[in-house]
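Quick illustration, no need to memorize.
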Amino acid sequence: MYRLIMRMMAAHWLQKTVACIFITAIILPFTQFRSVFSEERTCRITLQNVRGTKISLNAEIANNEFRRRKGLMFRKTLPVNEGMLFVFEYDQKLSFWMKNTYIPLSIAFIDAGGFIREIYDMAPLHENIIYSSKNFVRYALEVNKGWFAGNNIVPGCRVFFHGCIGKSDSHFKR
């Protein structure tokens, strides 16, 4: 009887162990995969306004498809001197919308040289309005609505990335 009980306990323990290993083998890669894409990277960039004054801004970096698609969706607030910098691999005409975005935003389309080409104010939660650049640009910067105007930043002003978008970037903060 004792041997039977011990065998049953060992079989039960083995089943539990195999089940745990199986579940871990299936779930772990997905959690690691998810953490790579959900990891937020921020960087301090500087914008020079029409008066020559430099204004610093903390920007989350959206430099892959996952981060660019998610953007600032589902957030209820955005701190005053913060935003999101969308980084693209090549110059192109960009288009943005405000689906599931609760915060009123302004967007600046920035060329590869760091000059702002266009600025638009965007209304929250509108899926039928598309905000597109008229020029070929490399970057887009989203901030709270009115932030650019309030800081005297207009098309033609310069953005300094301080290495935030380079491959060997030491300015990233995690």
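Confidence is low (pLDDT under 50) at residues 22-38, 167-174.
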